[in-house]
Design a protein that fits this description.
Layout (H helix, E strand, L loop, with lengths): L2 H4 E9 L2 E8 L10 H8 L11 E5 L5 H9 L4 E6 L2 H13 L5 E4 L11 E7 L6 H13 L1 E12 L3 H9 L4 E8 L3 E8 L21 E5 L2 E5 L13 H11 L10 E5 L5 H9 L4 E6 L2 H11 L5 E5 L12 E8 L5 H13 L1 E12 H12 L4 E9 L2 E8 L3
Parallel strand pairs: 3-4, 3-6, 4-5, 6-7, 12-13, 12-15, 13-14, 15-16
Antiparallel strand pairs: 1-2, 7-9, 8-9, 10-11, 16-18, 17-18
Length: 400
């Protein structure tokens, strides 16, 4: 990852007489300061009761606050940090290196423990936007990987706390050992009282995140997919996606056959499916920092042999293989200038001469992107279309 492009500032965690400086990105949760929920959770821990050696998991680690705090006070512990957001994982890893801490950082959706030994302490700042069914499942998975006598220490906003309590109460091998409340958050410690850890399951494969299947018909583009909880456009493509579909269907009749296509930020899968509908034999490359989006989109396509996915916030270290003849990028709101500049340059390098780049998003963001493209001799802006505050820019890679 091009770290300097994403870096915003440092925040300082003060806990147990220590100060831990952590680099953050603007796009990550709590980029202004360490959030109250994490501080409340850390202060609920009985540090003196933690043995000198153990195993800990920071589940949904963000930029590493909880896991690196534990590593700071118990250097001999094995600490794993996991998040579905590749940007968060990268910042956690960078922070660990610069703090001189050896930890395991990985991009994942599940609290997997490949050793089978389980974790003595699982720390979880519970996401506030998870639905009740997903939250109950995630709670169960976090409990599953506890070692004998291990503790799940979590913090959650008050309105969702009852869902977690219910999930814990359904277990005969788990008991609540501590509960406290702050102004906005509830802290719960749940301890394994019997049994042994079990392997976590694959929530996407099991359909845990699934919403009701939908059918989309837009002009001559028709497809079905199963949206997932936690990603937008679950009831159909929004205006930014529809404008890309319009651009695809309006390409000249003599436009080349698309053999390799790439979608950056594919979301729940609408645009990959639209490409598949128009060019069924095309190979697809999907790039997103959100692992859930990649898994959902790849599942919607249903053709593993012709789909490659990369969980990454940008293209550093990403080898997509041969260049593509069609690239689609969804531009998020308020993308930082260095990130946008790097994104455009990297995309241009990965498109064949004569290939197309479609950039869609809010009109202001796409106009910024198109202005950058207008300054590159390697490409030309073929068209920019606007509708209801959204826009799509059609950019062509010049021959030669």
């Amino acid at each position: 990852m091009y770290f300097d492009d994403w870096y915003k500032k440092q925040v300082t965690l003060r806990w147990e007489g220590r100060s831990v400086d952590l680099a953050v990105a603007q796009e990550l949760f709590s980029s202004h300061e360490v959030d109250r929920g994490s501080l409340l959770l850390l202060r609920s821990l009985d540090v003196d009761a933690l043995p000198e050696r153990g195993r800990s998991l920071d589940y949904g680690c963000g930029y590493g606050v909880l896991g690196l705090a534990v590593k700071a006070i118990r250097p001999a512990w094995e600490v794993t940090l996991v998040d579905r957001d590749a940007l968060a994982v990268t910042f956690s890893a960078w922070n660990a290196v610069h703090l001189g801490m050896a930890v395991d950082c990985r991009c994942g959706l599940d609290p997997l423990d490949s050793t089978g030994a389980g974790y003595d302490l699982v720390l979880w700042n519970v996401p506030g936007k998870a639905g009740a069914s997903v939250l109950a499942r995630l709670t169960g998975e976090a409990l599953d990987v506890l070692a004998p006598a291990g503790t799940l220490a979590l913090v959650i906003v008050h309105p969702l706390a009852e869902t977690v309590r219910t999930a814990i109460a359904a277990r005969d091998d788990i008991a609540i050992a501590h509960e406290s409340k702050g102004r906005e958050h509830t802290v719960i410690h749940a301890r394994r009282t019997s049994g042994s850890p079990t392997s976590s399951r694959d929530g996407v494969a099991d359909g845990v995140f699934d919403r009701e299947a939908i059918e989309v018909v837009y002009g001559d583009i028709a497809y079905g997919l199963v949206p997932v909880i936690g990603l937008p456009q679950y009831d159909g493509p929004d205006q930014t996606s529809l404008m890309v579909m319009d651009a695809l269907t309006s390409l000249p009749a003599d436009d080349r056959e698309r053999r390799r296509a790439m979608v950056v930020r594919p979301g729940v899968g609408h645009l990959p499916k639209a490409i598949q509908t128009r060019w069924p034999s095309a190979e697809l490359v999907l790039v997103d920092r959100d692992l859930l989006a990649l898994r959902a989109s790849a599942r919607a396509l249903g053709n593993e042999d012709r789909t490659r996915t990369f969980a990454s916030p940008d293209f550093e270290g990403v080898d997509i293989g041969a260049p593509v003849d069609l690239a689609i990028v969804m531009i998020p709101d308020q993308m930082r200038p260095p990130v946008m500049t790097r994104l455009l340059d990297d995309l241009v390098e990965r498109i064949v001469p004569g290939g197309l780049l479609l950039a869609s998003g809010a009109s202001t963001e796409v106009s910024r992107f198109a202005s950058l493209a207008a300054k590159r001799s390697a490409v030309r802006l073929r068209d920019q279309r606007k509708r209801r505050g959204s826009s799509v820019g059609i950019i062509e890679r010049r021959d030669g």
